[in-house]
Design brief:
- The protein is mainly alpha-helical.
- It contains 9 helices and no strands.
- It has helices spanning about 1-30, 40-50, 55-80, 85-125, 125-130, 135-175, 180-190, 195-220, 225-260.
- The chain is elongated and about 70 Å long.
- The termini are far apart.
């Protein structure tokens, strides 16, 4: 009986949080198109979230390209299909691996940073001070950060894909003496319009999810330093789960259009 009550309480808290997150998202969509527009703060956040994530995304993409090629090459060699390696790696990275891995890396790097930053501002009453002074903290703090992540993540995904493909090329060049021109000609010949567009579109939704959840957890952070750590941690966990849900929906919808 106690176990049932505990599950019921957790389910109720989860549904309440989903409702609050939905309201938070609707408020963002309403505030994003209202004047004044904080262009200066938006550019600052784009720099913070985009430029400072380049190294991490680049290293991650490079290692993914190396590992994917090294792990797959022996199997393809066994079946005499090693010539399909550039096409297989290109489609895998561009369609799925590049966007989701980059989004997960950014969820840890950007989502936790937003949650901790806004959480510390809430704890130290800086957000309350902005409200008292007549400034709209939601527009200045939340809208700019969400828009920055939404705009920067597709660019980071493209960069991560390119570096991952370069890492795959290095393995193929060393193992199979494949030239740069031949490798990337095969990659681009195998890619179609339907591979690139869905991956790019869902990258925008990944960025929106990272920004919304990170800002939501930080903006409504509980008082105390423990609340800041909890906000940063829960932002990463919740965002990671949400990214997989969005990815599944995107793949499902894309599959429906392909069937049509």
């Amino acid at each position: 009986m106690l176990g049932f009550k505990s599950i019921n309480a957790q389910l109720k808290a989860f549904l309440i949080e989903i409702g609050e997150l939905s309201y938070f998202t609707s408020r963002f969509l309403k505030e994003a198109f209202k004047r004044p527009f904080e262009f200066k703060e938006l550019l600052k956040q784009c720099y913070n979230m985009g430029n400072r994530s380049l190294l991490l995304v680049g290293i991650t993409g490079f290692i993914i390209g190396l590992v994917l090629t090294l792990q797959t090459r022996p199997t393809l060699t066994e079946f005499g299909a090693v010539s399909w390696m550039p096409s297989m790696v290109g489609i895998s990275i561009v369609r799925e691996i590049g966007p989701i891995i980059t989004a997960l890396v950014c969820a840890g790097r950007i989502g936790s940073g937003i949650g901790a930053e806004l959480g510390s501002m809430r704890v130290t009453e800086q957000i309350d001070a902005m409200e008292v002074s007549g400034t709209n903290p939601f527009k200045y703090l939340v809208v700019t950060r969400v828009l920055a992540v939404t705009l920067m993540l597709p660019l980071l995904v493209i960069l991560g894909d390119a570096i991952a493909l370069f890492g795959s090329y290095l393995v193929e060049h060393v193992k199979g003496n494949v030239s740069f021109t031949l490798f990337f000609n095969q990659v681009f010949d195998s890619l179609e319009f339907g591979d690139i567009v869905p991956a790019t579109v869902k990258s925008f939704f990944f960025g929106l999810a990272i920004g919304i959840v990170g800002c939501f957890k930080g903006y409504y952070c509980k008082k105390g330093t423990a609340g800041v750590g909890k906000a940063a941690n829960s932002a990463v966990v919740f965002t990671s789960l949400l990214l997989f849900v969005i990815d599944f929906i995107a793949v499902f919808v894309t599959d429906i259009f392909y069937d049509l």
